[in-house]
């Protein structure tokens, strides 16, 4: 098994990509601490994974005490820590018109500041196991959609943090830090969000090719498969790297012949 005997902390692990990573990690032999905001979902996941393989802690990662409590919990339960997956994030639409300073700071607290605080708190334990960190970003880190301004800023900052720590921590502490930037993923939250916006229940079955050449979105399990490689010993000394998981090139894209968008 690819993650045998590893202990992994996963924030935002009750649903979506985080849940898929937790499920895959346990299947590959790991023990996990999953974190989220809805205790009901956390308990259901732990029951599904088995209490011998998983535990949960429901807490907002932006709380000052959260990093310490998370690390204490995982050490008390499993005795060590090999990997952190910083997956928790706020995904909120915003533009220049409504991205006020207070709003941006709130998004940054969850998407950038809290992951840094968790890494800092966990570093002594990760150093002992020569462990690793995997940050879950977004392709929006490269610029972002017009109505995802604050989110895109926060993921761009996370990406810079990954490259910086992936170099310095690996050189000085033996701790690898990498990042996955997923494209459009069909999570439960994404399905519910689009339905709340008035789209039909099966909206994801009719995605324009400009957004999804495969005519479908990524599944959380596909992101988890890539995460498994970066969390495992198979990837060797890979650190400070950002892997984009997208269906099309972010630069130099060939638009469909019938594309009616801007040619500027």
From TrEMBL:
Matches recorded under InterPro entries: NAD(P)-bd_dom_sf, Sc_DH/Rdtase_CS, SDR_fam
Q: Which family is it part of? A: Belongs to the short-chain dehydrogenases/reductases (SDR) family.
Gene3D superfamilies referenced in this protein's UniProt entry, alphabetically? NAD(P)-binding Rossmann-like Domain (3.40.50.720)
Q: What is the lineage of its organism?
A: Bacteria, Pseudomonadati, Bacteroidota, Cytophagia, Cytophagales
Source organism (scientific name): Arcticibacterium luteifluviistationis
By its UniProt entry, which PANTHER family does this protein fall under? Answer: EG:BACR7A4.14 PROTEIN-RELATED (PTHR43975:SF2), ZGC:101858 (PTHR43975)
Query: Would you tell me the protein name for this molecule?
Result: Short-chain dehydrogenase
